[in-house]
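Blinded run. Sample ID left blank on purpose so nobody reads anything into the name before looking at the predicted structure. Input follows.
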Amino acid sequence: MTDATTLPDNAIEVRGLKKTYAGSKKSAPKTALRGVDLIIPRGSVFGLLGPNGAGKSTLINILAGVVKKSEGTVTIWGRDIDKEPRDAAAALGVVPQEIVADVFFTPRESLEVQAGFYGVPKNERRSDELLAALGLSDKANAYVRALSGGMKRRLMVAKALVHNPPILILDEPTAGVDVELRRQLWAYVRQINAEGVTIVLTTHYLEEAQELCDTIAIVVDIGTPLRSRKQLATVVDVLNQSITLIIQIISGAVGGNIAGLSKQGLGSGLNTVVGGVGGLVLGQILAAITGMPAGGALDIAAVGSNIVGGGVGGLVLTFVVGWIKNKMAAK
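Blinded prediction complete.
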């Protein structure tokens, strides 16, 4: 699609992207994206994380050409989606959250039909290669309706790759998949990434992001303050998981729950590491999603980021969670 000597530095570039869905007599207009700026380097495994309703699927649908943006620019593999929509769309392979497959076709027939939609010549089609790579060779001639849920998900990945796209978008690809099949998908994602395919992954599994991604972006709705106990409880839950993940990455600790960790415990878990790693990240997230004054949150983050030692990191993380729990109690 793009000459090897002119490969773009970035697989995807998004600038000032906004999307507002029109209102009706019964509902006001809904803003799904508010000025998103995003750069995804070529060859990376990019994780897109965020709570339900934050706008991840809207962003993916805009990239795929399914939803029209309200404002901003989007470039995919060097092609502007407004000026070269067909070429931009052809650079993507998208695996949606929902399983979409014709149950009266076999897996091989499904791939052949999908390749035909993209105009792939018969002598260049890779149906059997993709089925083998995703462990579906023995089901190549079975009806799709006879496949398990995990097999259908793997078939969705194969369908997204029939035209050999340089970018693959995986929208929660392992939801409902058992541990063994999940690891097989992880292995295949690593393989095609090593071959040069850029991966964009959305997931709610933090261990999946840890395992696969080299860069992560967090999508949050910064325009909606957290007002209910349920919303605040959700933030606490996300922070619990995030802190556990940070400890796992940095110190190799397994498991852990913020409710059972003291300031001293957090400090020792992050010992010998710049204490502000957690404080910086969580301080910025806190300012964005809770309505806490940005200056206060970032001042806390700055203290953590400039002092070496796990103790300060532990104090910062404990303060963040304590502040949110106090807000919950006040409600």
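Unblinding after everyone has recorded impressions. The beta strands are 10-21, 30-41, 45-49, 71-76, 79-80, 92-95, 167-171, 198-202, 215-218.
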